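Q: Start with the shorter request: fold the first protein.
A: Done. Sequence, then structure:
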Amino acid sequence: MVPGMDPGLSTSSRTTGPGARITTAFAVAVLIGGGNFVAVRFSNRELAPFWGAALRFMLAAAIFVGVVTALRLRWPRGRSLGLIVVYGILSFAVSYSLMYWALVRVSAGMAAVVLAAVPLVTALLAAAQKLEPLTKQAVIGAVVVLVGITWKATEGVGGSLSIPGVLAMIAASATVGQSMILSKKVSQNHPAVVNAVGMLAALPLLLVLSAVAGESWGLPTSPEAKWAVAYLVVLGSVGMFVLFLLVVRRWTASATSYAFVLFPVVTMLIEAWLEGTPLSFRGVSGALLVMVGVWFGVFARSDPGTSNHS
């Protein structure tokens, strides 16, 4: 670890989770997050992507503001407020506008596989910002991840392959990686406060994107779209983001981001169940390559006196 570096951002520092409760919170967040990709696909069938994201976070922000008001929590000020606003713009506006747009063009499984690179992207971004050193393992892991993503993406050659959709998901993984670094810095604030402020900061940008794209604004009418939006608001936003902030408060940012490595397993199983999407050899092997690359580049590193699970 680099001298003077925030140990909460190190991929090799020891985690400080209190045990079963934090591990359970992490597992539930993985299950919810894996379902989010499929739910967004259902939402996108009726709602335009940017408007769908805006509606989701508008409703979730209203819930969080209600919680903050009911609990009489203090709103952040000064530097803390600024960090939460930046976190919200990256996490909810930039990342999700890219993901919603991409999920009109690529399958939920493909999106989850690309986003599985988030832990490695987080480590590479931390190295670029001189928060931790860049290792040979990280570079090799990045190459393996790229091979896995390419292998999975080319499954659609001659069919529905969308290069812009895949590139949008890669850009989303970069912004999610940066927001994971920021999430550690704001995690000592109450999760309801962080999410209320972050989502309110993101809303204007999402609405502007929707207006510029000429999208129509309305509420979902079909049963599947209604259930998808309800899932995304209650579980996929309120539930998952609270759980992530609780976990990252006790674990490192890199350890928490390991959830993204597990998302493809959940997503592909749910997609196969709900939509009959076959579990192809290329799809499964591509996901495994990405997981192996992330594990080798981030989690397999062992330094004296440190834990590998961080």
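Q: Next, the second protein, separately.
A: Sequence, then structure:
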Amino acid sequence: MRPNTKQDRRCTYVVALSSPSYATDSFDLRSFAEYLSTVGVSGCEVIVLDSSDEIDEHRRILRWVARHVVVHEPVDVVRTAASVASCDKIVIATANVRYNVADLTELCALLDAHEVVEAQDYLEPMPWWGGIDAGRMLVHRGIDPHPDRSATFGFRRSILRGLRGFDATGSTDPVGVLALHGAEVVTAPELFVRRCPPQLREWIRERPREADLDFNVPAKAAFFFALIPMAILLAFVGDGRVAIGYSGAVAFASVVLAVRGRIGAGAFFPLRACLFAPLWVFERSVSVYWALLQRMRGTVVEQPAAIATQRSTRVASGE
């Protein structure tokens, strides 16, 4: 049931659906609709921006729990959300994010004082491939406290009037684009929002796309490109012990960073997630070659140039 009046609404909750990003084996439309109904009952206006291939089916089910808006890709999710929302406070989330009432209340309270608030996300449940993603999140937290392309954030619609030239069309990091145009972006270090893990087949399909984003930060891409060739070179030039020592040092450093990143987040990341950090490093060092091969074949779409700065002065790591 939706709130009856605009005065009852604490914020507008917006989800963008597109075929590449959600139409996978793991997406359960009815479960998603049930979740959106709880968001609506909690006092939020709920809007679904739909550019998928199943618009009619989605409208039939989601119109009971949300305002269903058809859009065409590529889309600037920030400006589009601002144009259809009735509230000044807007929360944008991916389809696999699951807020509870307390999370939404805290985020809305933070938006009273800040222009853009970025929440931290965590995976629950956590299968082994989710553990690899959790290891990646912790390594990134160990280097930079800001989320690495968080799955959800909130902003005040009124700030867009002062952002000249703002355009996040097709961006994988709209918060980064907001920051580059002068918006005040803060991270909520104690606000953790649950995100459902993908199915294994979906996770594997995403590896080259996620690795392709590393090309926007040349130093990071070069680091992952060099890991495996360096281990092979050390094995030939020296002996097996040198290569094993090199690999062990990289693995140990990743675990240390993950343990550091877990500080303050232990309630959401089990200790075993730190042990997945070396697996993530290995996975990404393989996936960058996979992404390069797809780029050469022309099957990976390059990201907008604005993303190349990756939050301007932030340290780039993680996904």
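Q: Describe the second briefly.
A: The beta strands are 11-17, 44-50, 67-70, 89-93, 97-98, 116-123, 152-156, 185-195. The mean pLDDT is 87.
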